[in-house]
Design a protein that fits this description.
Layout (H helix, E strand, L loop, with lengths): L1 H21 L4 H10 L2 H26 L8 H17 L5 H13 L3 H29 L4 H30 L1 H9 L3 H14 L8 H28 L6 H16 L8 H14 L3 H29 L4 H12 L1 H13 L1
Helix pairs in contact: 1-12, 2-13, 3-4, 3-6, 3-10, 3-13, 4-5, 4-13, 5-6, 5-14, 6-7, 6-9, 6-10, 6-11, 8-9, 9-15, 10-11, 10-13, 11-12, 12-13
Length: about 350
């Protein structure tokens, strides 16, 4: 019932956001814009966007190299795609848990470092997005005070992400000392410290120059590929915008996908329409059409490929849900053991 209510709330939010996006848009003009879109261009956009997951897998393998070197590509790629599939079609955003859980189950990677690598993965995503965003603000046609404000915001956010990354690296570097300090604290702080240090194992690669170069390079390539896919799709939808404009759009689109709605519906459309119309002067009907068509180009290939991988890899939905819920229950079980030990 709890999961159903979450899904219903997300669905309601998606409907609200779609209503806001479509409100005031001429329906005939919108349908005409969709009809004029290049199908071949949208297929190419979907393929390019899907291809970014290759860089995501290579980055994940580099992050886990200190724990388990030379992990095979196929199970990691499967875990990434099935994780996205789960996020798109099921409530609760379980995909972030499915990915490390599947890799742990199939390749025996310790769950702590596996989860920690996902944390590092997301921080690296944020850093790459903000670097490309800041670059795009200097190259795109945004002018005047708006450009300076956006550039300043990008630099501040990038600094915050870098501070978080440094903190994770420092926590991992002084793991032994911090473990001893946490052991002398209260039960709640001791449990929280153990969890943080376990996750910090996933950032071990950031302390090795070669692996750090790999993960940073793959992060930038992944998001440049995403930007290229979006640019192809937006152009195929009739919006005449430059590639640097898509770099400026990246934080908006990432935020839109992060809105807890089924398949990112509503949030992605609102982010795309707002960015194209308000920042780059694209007509409302074309901007909304680009959001609708690019959302399909992003989501449908992942759903189709994810279902194929579930079949070919012999993974059931029951396995996926059990893996995610097992990871989510680790914290509760650890807390219970702490309470029993203290008693």
């Amino acid at each position: 019932m709890k999961e159903f209510l979450k899904y219903a709330a997300g669905l309601g939010l998606a409907v609200l956001l779609l209503w806001i996006v479509l409100r005031g848009v001429d329906r005939a003009a919108l349908l005409a814009a969709i009809g004029r879109a290049s199908v071949l261009g949208l297929v190419a956009a979907g393929a390019v966007n899907l291809a970014h997951n290759v860089f995501r897998v290579w980055r994940w393998r580099a992050l886990l190299a200190p724990v388990r070197p030379n992990l095979p590509f196929r199970p990691m790629f499967t875990a990434v795609i099935v994780g996205y599939l789960t996020t798109w079609v099921l409530p609760g955003r379980l995909g972030e848990l499915v990915r490390p859980a599947l890799l742990t189950a199939r390749e025996g990677v310790p769950i702590g470092p596996s989860l920690g690598s996902i944390v590092a993965d997301r921080v690296l995503d944020g850093a790459a997005i903000l670097v490309l965003f800041a670059t795009g603000t200097f190259l795109s046609p945004i002018q005047g005070d708006a450009a300076r404000k956006i550039q300043s915001a990008a630099l501040v956010l990038l600094a915050l992400v870098l501070v978080f990354m440094v903190g994770a690296v420092v926590a991992g570097s002084f793991r032994g000392r911090l473990e001893g300090w946490f052991e002398r604290r209260g039960r709640l702080l001791r449990w929280g410290g153990r969890a943080v240090l376990s996750l910090a194992l996933g950032t071990e690669a950031l302390r090795r120059p070669r692996l750090l170069a790999l993960v940073l390079g793959h992060s930038l390539l992944a998001w440049l590929t995403i930007a290229a896919g979006v640019w192809i799709g937006v152009r195929a939808s009739g919006a005449n915008v430059s590639f640097p404009a898509m770099l400026v759009m990246l934080p908006l689109l990432a935020f839109g996908v992060a809105v807890p709605t089924p398949g990112g519906a509503g949030g992605y459309h609102a982010a795309m329409a707002f960015g194209l119309e308000m920042l780059f002067g694209v007509p409302a009907d074309t901007a909304v059409a680009a959001g609708i068509l690019m959302h399909l180009a992003v989501v449908l290939p992942v759903i189709v490929l994810g279902l194929v991988l579930l079949k070919t890899e012999g993974i059931s939905w029951g396995d996926v849900l059990a893996a995610a819920r097992g990871v989510r229950g680790l914290g509760r079980e650890t807390g219970q053991r702490e309470e029993e030990g203290a008693a």
